Records
---
Amino acid sequence: MKGGNMGNMMKQMQKMQKKMMKAQDELHEMTFEASAGGGMVTVVANGKKEITDVQIKEEVVDPDDVEMLQDLILTATNDVIKQIDDKTNDTMGQFTKGLNMPGGMF
């Protein structure tokens, strides 16, 4: 491989890295929302997987059935995290197509 080709390849890699970093920053700024129990519990998170809000409708709070509330919170939280993972994989996957990257890289 000639030096010029290596230089071009390095420039392309740096350009791709900048695009990846921009895409990742945009993902981190996104807001994701999931609900369970027909909207009785809603969980909001950012692209960094930080939970930013939890809304619980008053009528779902039953002291005699705390387990149901816990299940609704878990369901909504797991769903919002899955949404973030799916969006991250879709967005960042465009940069790793054709590359043999180890699983779970992003």
---
Amino acid sequence: MAWLVTGGAGYIGAHVVRAFQAEGIDVVVLDDLSSGHRGFVPQGVPFVEGSILDAALLREAFAAHDITGVVHVAGYKYAGVSVQRPLHTYEQNVTGTAVLLAAMQEAGVDAVVFSSSAAVYGTPDTDLVTEGTPKSPESPYGESKLIGEWLLRDQGVAAGLRHTSLRYFNVVGSGSPDVFDSSPHNLFPLVFEALLDGRTPKVFGDDYPTPDGTCVRDYIHVADLAVSHVVAAKRLDAGEPLESVYNLGSGDGVSVGQIMTAVADVTGVPFTPQIAPRRPGDPARIVASGELAARDLDWRMRHSLAQMVQSAWDARRAAS
């Protein structure tokens, strides 16, 4: 019996694959390599190249492998770009999820852990986001993730699908030297690329009502995130009850200014970040409670900020 990890050749998915391996659980990876890397898939792990939109391919994958459940990480995740590409975003994240769920039902696979997002909350009006905080997504990406959660809920009612959705906040770091964040939109890669190119990293606004004037966000280590996916999968496999959604949040926050200081310390490249104007819609602080996930999914912050930065930097340099 194995778990299928869609998007398992991506930054987060590849860490989930390694977390399953660490528990001695077999995995199969399905990825279209649109943003993932074939080299992120460990040797010996069965790999199916293709899209979750390809129903025939999904049927073949379920028929060829003894799949007990799915961790669904595949999707188009660029919130800002989704505003310019709404139809593409909905096709990948909503239609793709529906096609996957249909293939699962046809194959008799009834357990799924879904990669959701903090983007479902939009700009919350609270200092500490909980699972009950009102959902008000502000991009097609955030909307598509919320619809994905609804699809799981409705399929649970209609067909007995056992499911849980994990809402991510800012995922950073690396748990393996051969897996790094290659996103052109995430903070850590942007800062590292600037330093490697001899440019000064930017901070968007330093006059927010926060201790150092820069935005405060919830940064979590990707390896910690991956562990909770495996715990969720094991509990679903055992028929144990889970909440329908969990926030994987720190309960605390780190400012962009603190991250810049940590990056300078870890890399040994001294710099004073360039202060750019605020970006429209950037709230001063978004931090989430992880209490429910700590109770049910062995969720905890196992890495300090320095360890997050060091692991990410080491992985990025190893890729050079």
---
Amino acid sequence: MHVPQEILQFLQQLNGYMHYQNEQIRQMDAKLQDVIQELKRLKQHNAEPPVIRNEYRFDLLKVEKLEGTLNIGINPNGSDSDSSIEEFAVEQTLDAPSLIEKQYPQLLPDLQQQVDNYLNNGAYDSLNELESQYKYPLDTQYRKFIVEDVKKQTDKRIRDYLKRVRPDDATPEQLTSIQQSVYEDVKRDIEKTFESFMKNMLRKENGT
């Protein structure tokens, strides 16, 4: 039975992605076991456990579910450097409304709509450009999977950037500027996530 080349290519891409997922899950499980052992040790010594922090690197696609999740990285300084790191305490609640959300309730839905418009249109153009740049074509179904997976995570990224807005800047006159700035930050994070995904897929395919 002859299998079309497009299906073979998709299966190869999917296999590489799942291999990458499994490796990330294995690493996360090992780190979790280390944390459990450390907590047991501290408990035995009646010590106050330290605040445990997770490191979110923008250049790493951390997988949280077996079916696959491309985590959008956070680049707090607005830099394109792959070495930027944002640390969050485990118990920190990222979904708590920010000051500016409380002052201007319409700002969040406006940003959500703006980001959705990009994901429904410009994001596919960005992926196409990366496919050409890295000579790694994706089929339509796989490309849609990537975009839809990222789309599920954008609300947290928007809220995180809104929390960085200083109260003094949150004036009605500054709303348009604030909205555009947050949109550009989230859009940049999405595009760098796409690029990181492409690089990692190529590394896995080449065995590096």
---
Amino acid sequence: MRVKIVRVAQGKQSTLSHLYIDGIFQCYLLEDKIRADKILKQTAIPMGDYQLIVNSWGGMNTKYKNLMGKVHEGMIEIDQLPNFDYVYIHIGNTYLQTAGCPLTGFGFELINGDYQVTHSRKAYDMVYPKLLKIAKSKENQISIENNFQF
């Protein structure tokens, strides 16, 4: 399976993306603003090809295990990012909740010049088992690309 994040719009401090698995749209993603120079916990992931892994040792695992129960086997982490650590696909609605991580959503809004995603938990519940399966496989690649002009 092939996972792709395609960025489609940028707000003042936010970036809106589409998540695809095998070419099929899954949900929206929200990240921080794309920046030439990284600002810790305020910068979108660089374009490129990376790996998805299952992280079962980070602090968010306890929170998500309590939230999701047996379904949660670990956070879906985008690994091998230059100058980024512990980048998870997770639940949240605004760029203030990303800390450099993509947030899931079934809808989006543009409010005061920034994007927000909606129905984040529902989107995460739907996409998590798919991403978990991919992260546990040998075909655990994810690509990130921009599809708009800055």
